[in-house]
């Protein structure tokens, strides 16, 4: 099976199916996944030569992750870096991705899951296209950051760590991005917005294509988003 | 590739003229360089666009001027900051429009752009030059001396400022024990918060027989409202690397890690770049400067857990585990990373090391007070006019920091307290602001030096609410490994919540105090042991505010009424 890479063999349904089973797949169906993944890995050279353009984004992401693990995954300390890369590629750490990392690094799935759920940076559910992180560090807090957070909750109708139904925004809180002179501030993906008032909330949302905007500002250039994000860009304004 | 002291000197000689030009202060002549602050705060308030705009403008107009990125000036509240050399003319709030103005008026026509110069809050005249601005006058920038002077992305500029000369010297001398002694005699104490003597820590690790040892730089700056380490890493990453290599040589380590927060992408990027540049020049890797000493540095990224600033939790995290602390002893100097002797030093501590080696322990010991030597970097935030990053000699008073350097509070506001040490520290009330800032004095006041976050609180801040904020933080960040911290912090938050809702009783107050002591005494690690400090400290100085909430059902600052409904 190793030697016969078949580009038409699509493993996505298998992995998607595994999603429903959740972590159980880590124990029950390991061999199946292993076989599937071995097939795909043996195709790296062909893929790099552009011979298998039929490979979808998810398959490509797994290949990139595989290479990353080969480079950084040797020491046990490499797990954090690998999970960060995995999250960058897939947008979040699904049970399948956690299982894959565990397999490749010869670690128990429970260990990987334990780490993935310990750190606030790691997320185990899909995130919105734009992640709004309202800073709740001390400097922002004393400059009325809670009012700003409450305004987002009202307008978006979500609580922190939830995503809007259209998948556009995830609301989060963060502990200090170290730019306290701009307090109160928030980040939308990588971009920092500072010196905010609650009244600025609709304007910020509209900049990123949210419907909640009362006024339409000029639309910012497209921000970097996770490589696995295949959703179409939102309509401007 | 640098193989000898002479090679290093050659690089310095080549790049010194460029850097020297930036040291000529006070007389503006034909501009040759513009330095644009490229720290997170300035870049994200428009500095990025200003930098690109200036570069384009200079190119298009064919001006003989270099546009250079540099580290934090500390003047973050008025950023983005740009400084024109020679003469160090400082411009504030340099956005794209302002950049165009500077390019045309100053760089091309040689006239100062008056409306972009610094002007104090009291409306006094505009200041042309960096050194005339009160914010900088009472500072003593030693660790930050190159921040705002050199390009942090160019190792040559660091070398031009005597960078890596301390390393070259200790390697040439070949006496690791002499370095430990030098650091010991300087009186340097850990800048991460606890203030443990650095020389002592190194001597413990050096004494271990184990051949494999590690140096870890703790750059997991978790105190919300503090950004000293971020600024050092963004402004002068090579100083930290040089400190680590010297530390490695002193204790006999071969490998170092910088454990840095992933929330600081720019610091991570600059560190990666700095490591690559140092490797390329042979300042990291095998047989450094022909001395036979091997040392390399890699990054370990944190992922958002306050507890990982605690050294045993950091170690577990760096090894790819959940960041849960363990009991000490054994201390990391005996059993650290992969159970090998490990020295864990804070960013600022390590950045001091090359300076101590270069200028001598006596020089360092001449700064500061009897028990607290050297300078300290603070990040100034909260209710203050000039938020930013400052470096002052130990022993300076908080009132000097707040009023002379920080420019005081906005009109109509009155300082109530200054929080030092973040969630592990306490509030120093207004009437005690003249106390000198050193490890001992702050401890007597019931707070700690901490890593350097200073949050100014005023009459619009409720101290009970602030205590609740910090306790909520501790409860959220508690890793759950020990019960007093996991459960205790949540109970303390519950009580504080009752009080702020106007439902507290005097019995609650008694219980709060008792519980706070329990959490402090029984917790496993520093997070739990210090978590209740903000409560104990506000109870000590602001008990009347607690009583107003309980007896009168009223929040004197008017904060909790807002939260209540």
Could you explain the architecture of this structure?
The complex is a heterodimer of chains A (about 240) and B (about 575). Among the domains of chain A are: about 60 residues; about 90 residues, Glutaredoxin, CATH 3.40.30.10. Chain A has eleven helices and five strands; from the N terminus they run H-H-H-H-H-H-H-H-E-H-H-E-E-E-E-H. The longest helix of chain A is centred in the first third of the chain and has 16 residues. The radius of gyration of chain A is 20 Å and the shape is elongated. Chain A starts with 11 loop residues before the first helix and ends in a 30-residue tail after the last helix. The model of chain B has no long low-confidence stretch (mean pLDDT about 95). Chain B contains 23 helices and 13 strands. With about 575 residues, chain B is of the alpha/beta class. The longest helix of chain B has 21 residues. The chains are: A alpha+beta (about 240), B alpha/beta (about 575). At the A-B interface, helix 6, helix 8 and helix 9 of A face helix 2, strand 9, strand 13 and helix 17 of B.
Q: What structural class do helix, strand and pairing data of chain B support?
A: alpha/beta
Q: What can be said about the biggest beta sheet of chain B? A: 5 strands, mixed
The largest sheet of chain A is:
5 strands, mixed
CATH level 3 topology of the domain at 130-222 in chain A: Glutaredoxin
Strand fraction band of chain B? 5-15%
Strand content range of chain A: 5-15%
Gyration radius of chain A, rounded: 20 Å
Distance between the termini of chain A: 51 Å
The span between the termini of chain B is 66 Å
According to CATH, what is the class of the domain at 130-222 in chain A?
Alpha Beta
Keywords:
heterodimer, A: 237 residues, Glutaredoxin, five-stranded mixed beta sheet, 44% helix, B: 565 residues, alpha/beta, de novo design (two linked rop proteins)
